[in-house]
Amino acid sequence: MPEDRFDSDPNVTFDRDRQLRIGLEEAVLAEFKTVDQVSAILGDAIAEGRRLLLTRLTHDQHAALPEAQRAAIDYCPISRTAILGDLPPQAVTPRVALVSAGTSDAGPALEAQRVLAYSGLSATMVADVGVAGLWRLLRQEELLKSMQVVIVFAGMDAALPSVVAGLVPGMVIAVPTSVGYGVAAGGQTALNATLASCAPGILVTNIDNGYGAACAALRFARVTAPAMAQATPPRDAF
To answer: Residue 208: how many CB atoms within 10 A of its CB?
Structure first.
């Protein structure tokens, strides 16, 4: 059982021991919390000297936080993520690529990148390679084939994850995004398209869920780490 540590807000019970159980820290979904609740959670983390990751922190919420707390966090308005504390050293294995169909998909893609970085895993960003100009993707084909995890962000008809999964041998995670007009329906069409993909073995997250995709990649990294370590020859073998 976790030791008793009390939260400043009576409606908050922060899961401080989650990383010990599953290897992933609890992140704070800020969007549906009051500013006072977000501030209390941040204040507890600062007082305890621990890092903290916040997702979906809106511009208005960020602007309403106390000045000292705003100064203490690294806030990205595009991804709406905030990080309290320093980033750990960045691992380069497993090799992860973040592939976006268009620049309009930058929000979820940056969210995934920052979640990975917070957890100590670097990623290669490959932006604006949607299938409307297929040559853009094909000139990145060799790079993507060298990746062990490829997270693909696409809205509208979300054809890109299927195309990528037909080209690369690594794990492919599709993130349908809310980009698109009319019947794109805020990402519902993209979600259905990725779920119905004819390319085998695609993992699909919820709409715009860059956080969830990053966590899936981190789980993959955690369970494959022992095998990767065994497969790496010692330095003195060369």
So the answer is: 23
Determine the pLDDT at residue 228.
Answer: 62
CB-based contacts of 26, cutoff 8 Å, min separation 6 = 14, 15, 16, 18
3-state secondary structure of 40: helix
For 147, the token pair is 């990746």
H-helix or E-strand spanning residue 159: none
* Average pLDDT along the chain: 93
**Measured between alpha carbons, how far is 76 from 110 in angstroms, rounded to an integer?**
9
Residue 165 is encoded by which pair of tokens?
């999964």
Q: How many helices (H) and strands (E) does the chain have?
A: 10, 9
CB 55 within 8 A of CB 28: yes
Amino acid at 38: V
Residue indicated by tokens 């309290």: 84
Query: Which regions of the chain does DSSP assign to beta strands (E)?
Result: 28-29, 52-55, 73-76, 81-84, 96-100, 124-126, 149-154, 171-176, 203-204
Of 62, 82, 65, 60, nearest to 73 by C-alpha is 82
Q: What is the pTM of this model?
A: 0.91
Under a CB-based contact definition with an 8 Å cutoff, are residues 162 and 136 in contact? no
pLDDT at 90 (0 to 100)? 96
The residue count for the chain = 238
